[in-house]
Amino acid sequence: NAGVTQTPKFQVLKTGQSMTLQCAQDMNHNSMYWYRQDPGMGLRLIYYSASEGTTDKGEVPNGYNVSRLNKREFSLRLESAAPSQTSVYFCASSKSGLQETQYFGPGTRLLVL
Amino acid sequence: SQQGEEDPQALSIQEGENATMNCSYKTSINNLQWYRQNSGRGLVHLILIRSNEREKHSGRLRVTLDTSKKSSSLLITASRAADTASYFCAPEGGSNYKLTFGKGTLLTVNP
Q: In this predicted structure, what is the pLDDT of residue A98?
């Protein structure tokens, strides 16, 4: 039981490049989330998926797109990376919404030059 | 969704001492969760307290909730160096699926 896994662990991009961050969970959870964390800040929600087939914007969705590929996988795409997107990205999942604990992945460190 | 505000922003104590951190929020909640984040790692859930509960224990952790004051506190007893981490509260008060995290309390436990 791996929990929540994220790939890659670390990535360097040039401004304007695109990339997809992958997230998978093996806990049969319905809800999945993408957060970003900047130095000295808490986590800010980018997008979430309450259940398979649905996605919704969070607090800071601009510059990102998401895909809930199936119940296990939730990917985050940067179409044209900008230096302001340099951050640590965390994926999380929960059984079903907010009444449940969220389980977090180890994070992806992204540097945009 | 609403954001919790943790206080203090930073706390430094000696091993064996107790650590108390607080969380305040603005509107009514269904539950409030506390998470820990070790440096460079993802968040780990510590404890969830529901709005009809006043106190909850888990090992060396004690969480209290005062809905009249819209505040919660997390007490770590007999702290260890391994407790060094940032601690976040996440109040949940709506019917949506989102949690909002504050900036956290950075706890340093010195050996």
A: 56
